Amino acid sequence: MAKGDDALARKKNKSTRKKMNRKNDSATVSTRIASIIAAKKRRKSGKRSMCQGMCFSLPTPEDPFNERQGKVDITKKKTKKVKTRDALHKKKEDKKPNVMSIDVIGKNIDGPLKFLTSCLNKIDSSFRSDGTYTDDQHDKYLFTSTWGIEFWKCFWSGKDILETSGTSSTMEQIAWIVSTATDAIARREKEEPEESFRNSPYLLFLVPSPSRASKVRSVCKALKGLGIHAVSLHQGASLDHQIAGLKSCEPEFLVSTPERLLEIVTLKGVDISGVSLLVIDELGSLCTAGYLDAVKSIKQSISSKHQSIVFNDSFSASNIPAVRSLLGESISRISLSDSVASQGSCIIQTVNVCSSEEQKLHKFAEILDSSSSKLIYIVTKEESFRKFKALLKLKGHSVSASEVKKSRKPMARLIDIEQLDTTVMRDFETVLLPDFVPSIDTYIQILTSMARDSVHGVLHSFLTQKVAASYPAGPLVNVLEDCGQNVPEAWRNMYSSV
């Protein structure tokens, strides 16, 4: 039976509605899903383009090289977990302390210092196993040492180092020295070709006795697993045996007494010309035992550029020339002690008691003539400025009351006692006190502030007998004696009578 026009119209409208519904369904989905549906339809109909799959879209500012080929980055954002205060506190307690990076002027040293920390940890473990640490030192860690971090900074500054505690090196100090040397060897091997290395040891540690040599070597043993070999040379062992051991081992660290090392060097049993770090322990004991000339000969045998570290176990003024002969012009000071004797180490103090003002002025002029320093700091009373300024100009010095400027002439800075600023005195090796100072505290402040980067400091004090009679001699005598300085006989008698 033929269908009427109404039936055909209904059928056509139904087909149209289905098409509209399909269009509406595709519009409700996202653009990405719609593109996937369209691609599927093209594949079924056989109308897929030849380039499809190679480039789906044009480059965009977010993807300029079209590396993602139009694909949307659907990586999930990481959600941060909120940690409670208790959890953070517990994690902080469980975490082991670590060495932080240290800034050194003029050196590109990366951090954290993992290898240095590893060396210190190995020595730490050996200290705990062999009983070096007592029960109350169980929580102690070498890499938290204030002295060690300060030493590390001084070492990488390249200057010679003077330890002014007045004692021999401690186990902690030895551990930091050998660990820093091991770290320096590793850096050198990484930065320089191996062919440039000499057969000389990197570290030479001079000690006054076999017992000290054994103590130092016991610390170095912990680093054997890192390829560091340490050899101890001293009396009590066969000379031939020690020479044979040196030739077979070629150690990185050499610990020795001066006289035995000189014997082996004379027999060409070891080459020390390429030593990079020289440590002289207990210099006062070495001088007392008569080994100073041997130490100087050993230092002269080192032809390479090297650093020297001196542990001065004596504050005696008689040892100051020895320290000066072994260290460079510019040094770094480091100490475990804050005492006046430690801070004023290697500064010669003289107290000149004169009969009159004229004799004091004459003595002042003599010291000016004999001084080799180009920078002199003079602290005096304001009413004496004109007198001393005229004398300084007569001696060829350029005088300044503020900052010292560059000049071909020797410079002198003239400062009023009432306006004394000791923070600017660290570069001055020679300080003169023509009118002395009003208190012993001011004197100590000057002594511990001057010549911080030198071992050539000299502090001269001048006063007349009249002033000396009214001045309390006791505190000054105590400072001079603690620092190992010469005390004037008149001053000592005055102190004794009191």
UniProtKB/TrEMBL annotation:
Gene3D superfamilies: P-loop containing nucleotide triphosphate hydrolases (3.40.50.300). The keyword rRNA-binding does not apply. Keywords: ATP-binding, Helicase, Hydrolase, Nucleotide-binding. Residues 199-311 form the DEAD/DEAH-box helicase domain. Residues 1-32 are annotated as: Disordered. InterPro entries: DEAD/DEAH_box_helicase_dom (IPR011545), P-loop_NTPase (IPR027417). GO terms for molecular function: ATP binding; helicase activity; hydrolase activity; nucleic acid binding. Residues 10-21 have a biased composition (Basic residues). This is DEAD/DEAH-box helicase domain-containing protein. It comes from Arabis nemorensis.
